[in-house]
Design goal:
With about 300 residues, the chain is α/β, with parallel strands linked by helices. Helices cover about 40% and strands about 20% of the residues. The chain is built from ten helices and eleven strands. Strands 3, 4, 5, 6, 9, 10 and 11 form a seven-stranded mixed β-sheet that branches. A two-stranded antiparallel ribbon has the order 1-2.
Length: about 300
């Protein structure tokens, strides 16, 4: 079945006269009649009743008419749809993110992206950096907000863009005597609380950065618990199980029984960035990257 056949059918159905339909289509009547007959043979049903009094739609023709109009309308929209897909205005984007990004860069950027590309369907997946790297390398996601560095093997395949740099802050159980003092706190002023931290296998850079803060202060922390989600770490602090060092943006996560404080000790910055496959030519991804570059925080 061709769109030309449907267009001829709709025109005859609207005119209910082959001669008038042929004039409207700028053609002669015989080829128009032949086209309709060929369509009826293909569909296996008569679409028009033809008699001396004129032309009328059969029940089969009446059923086909709205569907034929719908298909023709959709066909007219195809060039615009293709152009919008080519420019990244429609399509799908699968984005993974570490939990800390949910309290910093992710919400404002998603609002900006949805405003600029309202017809792109976004699939969000919270995942640790190591899982994101594996998903990127196996083409299961388009991009990932993660904590660097990228392994040497991944750098051969992935591109990376720094998005945010932030300091670490203390997350402490409420009620500690040291919290009576306002302002920044030194690690040496705190009791020897167990440390709640990311497992090194999950995020070696963040794990090592946190431990370096203690080592630089001359303190060897006792690791009490390990957890892979920021909200879990903060919940464990709330339960009084220990203390934690978390990216500053996590202080937006309010929990009863938790108080956040800036460190008086020297604190290295923790970086969050976006990684994606270098060979991903998706216009949707390119639009995402272009907008991200315009809205960089760091």
């Amino acid at each position: 079945m061709e769109l030309r056949q449907l267009r001829y059918f709709v025109t005859v159905a609207e005119e209910l006269h082959f001669g008038k339909a042929a004039l409207r289509l700028h053609m002669t009547q015989p080829p128009l009649s032949q086209t309709i007959q060929a369509l009826e043979e293909e569909l296996g049903a008569a679409l028009f009743d033809r008699n001396r009094r004129g032309v009328a739609l059969t029940p089969a023709g009446a059923a086909l008419l709205p569907e034929a109009r719908r298909m023709l309308a959709q066909a007219q929209e195809l060039p615009q749809l293709v152009q919008r897909a080519a420019s990244g205005e429609v399509g799908r984007l699968t984005l993974a993110f570490v939990s800390s990004a949910d309290y910093s860069v992710l919400p404002p950027f998603l609002r900006a992206y949805r405003a600029a590309y309202p017809q792109v369907q976004i699939t969000l997946q919270e995942a640790t950096s190591d899982l994101q790297l594996d998903d990127l390398l196996h083409k299961r996601i388009d991009a990932g907000l993660l904590i660097p560095p990228l392994p040497d093997k991944a750098r051969e395949t992935l591109d990376y863009l720094p998005v945010l740099n932030e300091a670490l802050v203390l997350a402490l159980p409420s009620g500690l005597p040291a919290l009576k003092k306002k302002g920044k706190l030194a690690l040496s002023a705190l009791p020897p609380l167990p440390l709640i931290i990311f497992p090194r296998t999950i995020s070696p850079a963040l794990h090592d950065t946190i431990l370096s803060v203690f080592h630089d202060a001359g303190i060897t922390p006792q690791i009490g618990q390990e957890a892979i989600q920021m909200q879990t770490i903060v919940s464990l602090v709330s339960a009084g199980i220990g203390m934690a060092l978390v990216p500053q943006s996590v202080s937006n996560l309010m929990r009863t029984g938790v108080e956040y404080r800036a460190l008086a000790d020297a604190t290295p910055l923790v970086e969050t960035g976006l990684a994606w496959r270098r060979d991903n030519t998706s216009p949707v991804l390119h639009g995402f990257l272009e907008l991200l570059r315009k809205n960089l925080i760091c």
